[in-house]
Amino acid sequence: MREFKGVEGWIRRHFVIYKVIRKSAPFLCTFISLEEGFDFLASIKPSSGSFSVLDIGANDGTSIRMIQQHIPKARIVAFDPVTRPSFDLSGIDFRDYALGSKPGGFHIY
Protein backbone atom coordinates (compact mmCIF):
# COMPACT_ATOMS: atom_id res chain seq x y z
CA MET A 1 0.00 0.00 0.00
CA ARG A 2 1.25 3.49 -0.88
CA GLU A 3 1.96 5.86 2.01
CA PHE A 4 1.03 9.51 1.42
CA LYS A 5 3.26 12.19 2.91
CA GLY A 6 3.38 15.95 3.04
CA VAL A 7 0.31 17.99 2.15
CA GLU A 8 -1.43 15.10 0.42
CA GLY A 9 -0.94 12.91 3.50
CA TRP A 10 -2.30 15.61 5.81
CA ILE A 11 -5.35 16.08 3.61
CA ARG A 12 -6.04 12.34 3.53
CA ARG A 13 -5.73 12.11 7.33
CA HIS A 14 -7.85 15.22 7.97
CA PHE A 15 -10.27 15.06 5.06
CA VAL A 16 -13.22 16.52 6.99
CA ILE A 17 -11.18 19.64 7.85
CA TYR A 18 -10.05 19.89 4.22
CA LYS A 19 -13.68 19.69 3.00
CA VAL A 20 -14.74 22.50 5.35
CA ILE A 21 -11.86 24.73 4.24
CA ARG A 22 -12.49 23.96 0.55
CA LYS A 23 -16.22 24.68 0.91
CA SER A 24 -15.45 28.08 2.48
CA ALA A 25 -12.93 29.00 -0.24
CA PRO A 26 -15.36 31.04 -2.39
CA PHE A 27 -16.25 33.19 0.62
CA LEU A 28 -12.62 33.61 1.68
CA CYS A 29 -11.67 34.63 -1.85
CA THR A 30 -13.84 37.71 -1.45
CA PHE A 31 -11.19 39.05 0.96
CA ILE A 32 -7.90 37.33 0.15
CA SER A 33 -6.22 35.56 -2.73
CA LEU A 34 -6.04 31.87 -1.89
CA GLU A 35 -4.49 30.77 -5.13
CA GLU A 36 -1.39 32.34 -6.62
CA GLY A 37 -2.64 31.62 -10.12
CA PHE A 38 -5.23 34.40 -9.85
CA ASP A 39 -2.78 37.19 -8.98
CA PHE A 40 -2.37 38.01 -12.68
CA LEU A 41 -5.97 39.27 -12.72
CA ALA A 42 -4.88 42.41 -10.86
CA SER A 43 -2.81 43.44 -13.90
CA ILE A 44 -5.73 43.22 -16.36
CA LYS A 45 -7.21 46.62 -17.11
CA PRO A 46 -10.26 46.36 -19.42
CA SER A 47 -10.13 48.90 -22.24
CA SER A 48 -13.91 49.06 -22.55
CA GLY A 49 -17.05 48.47 -20.53
CA SER A 50 -17.92 45.36 -22.53
CA PHE A 51 -15.23 43.10 -21.08
CA SER A 52 -16.11 39.39 -20.76
CA VAL A 53 -14.35 36.59 -18.90
CA LEU A 54 -14.97 32.87 -19.50
CA ASP A 55 -14.67 30.55 -16.50
CA ILE A 56 -14.49 27.08 -18.00
CA GLY A 57 -14.84 24.53 -15.23
CA ALA A 58 -16.35 26.85 -12.61
CA ASN A 59 -16.49 24.11 -9.95
CA ASP A 60 -17.11 25.68 -6.51
CA GLY A 61 -16.86 29.25 -7.81
CA THR A 62 -13.43 30.21 -6.46
CA SER A 63 -12.40 31.64 -9.82
CA ILE A 64 -15.68 33.56 -10.13
CA ARG A 65 -15.02 35.24 -6.78
CA MET A 66 -11.44 36.08 -7.75
CA ILE A 67 -12.54 37.57 -11.08
CA GLN A 68 -15.18 39.64 -9.27
CA GLN A 69 -12.56 40.84 -6.80
CA HIS A 70 -9.97 41.88 -9.40
CA ILE A 71 -12.18 42.89 -12.35
CA PRO A 72 -15.49 43.92 -10.78
CA LYS A 73 -17.09 45.25 -13.99
CA ALA A 74 -16.35 42.15 -16.08
CA ARG A 75 -19.20 40.10 -17.51
CA ILE A 76 -18.56 36.51 -16.37
CA VAL A 77 -19.77 33.50 -18.33
CA ALA A 78 -19.13 30.35 -16.28
CA PHE A 79 -19.40 26.74 -17.47
CA ASP A 80 -19.57 23.58 -15.37
CA PRO A 81 -21.66 20.50 -16.21
CA VAL A 82 -21.19 18.86 -12.80
CA THR A 83 -21.07 21.45 -10.00
CA ARG A 84 -23.01 24.66 -9.48
CA PRO A 85 -21.46 27.16 -7.03
CA SER A 86 -23.51 27.39 -3.85
CA PHE A 87 -23.47 31.20 -3.58
CA ASP A 88 -25.69 33.79 -5.28
CA LEU A 89 -24.93 33.85 -9.00
CA SER A 90 -26.81 37.08 -9.74
CA GLY A 91 -25.06 38.84 -12.58
CA ILE A 92 -23.19 35.67 -13.60
CA ASP A 93 -24.14 33.94 -16.84
CA PHE A 94 -23.85 30.36 -15.56
CA ARG A 95 -24.20 27.49 -18.05
CA ASP A 96 -24.54 23.97 -16.63
CA TYR A 97 -23.01 22.16 -19.57
CA ALA A 98 -19.60 21.26 -20.92
CA LEU A 99 -18.03 22.87 -23.98
CA GLY A 100 -17.45 19.57 -25.73
CA SER A 101 -18.97 16.12 -26.01
CA LYS A 102 -15.62 14.34 -25.59
CA PRO A 103 -12.22 15.14 -24.08
CA GLY A 104 -10.13 17.40 -26.26
CA GLY A 105 -9.14 20.98 -26.86
CA PHE A 106 -9.93 23.97 -29.01
CA HIS A 107 -9.11 27.66 -29.19
CA ILE A 108 -11.46 30.36 -27.97
CA TYR A 109 -10.81 33.87 -29.27
Protein described:
The protein starts with 5 loop residues before the first helix and ends in a 14-residue tail after the last strand. The protein is 28% helix and 13% strand. A 3-stranded parallel sheet has the order 1-2-3, with helices on one face. The chain has helices spanning 6-13, 15-28, 62-70; strands at 52-56, 75-79, 92-95. With 109 residues, the chain is α/β, with parallel strands linked by helices. Helix 3 (62-70) links the parallel strand 1 and strand 2. The mean pLDDT is 81.
Summarize this structure briefly.
This protein has 109 residues and is of the alpha/beta class. The chain is built from three helices and three strands.
Distance between the termini: 46 Å
Q: What low-confidence regions span 5 or more consecutive residues with pLDDT below 50?
A: none
How helix-rich are the residues, as a percent range? 25-40%
Q: Which structural class should the secondary elements be placed in?
A: alpha/beta
Q: Can you list the strand order of the major beta sheet? A: 1-2-3
Shape: globular
Mean pLDDT: 81
Number of helices: 3
**What fraction strand?**
5-15%
Order of helical and strand elements: HHEHEE
Number of strands: 3
> Radius of gyration, rounded?
16 Å
Largest β-sheet summary: 3 strands, parallel
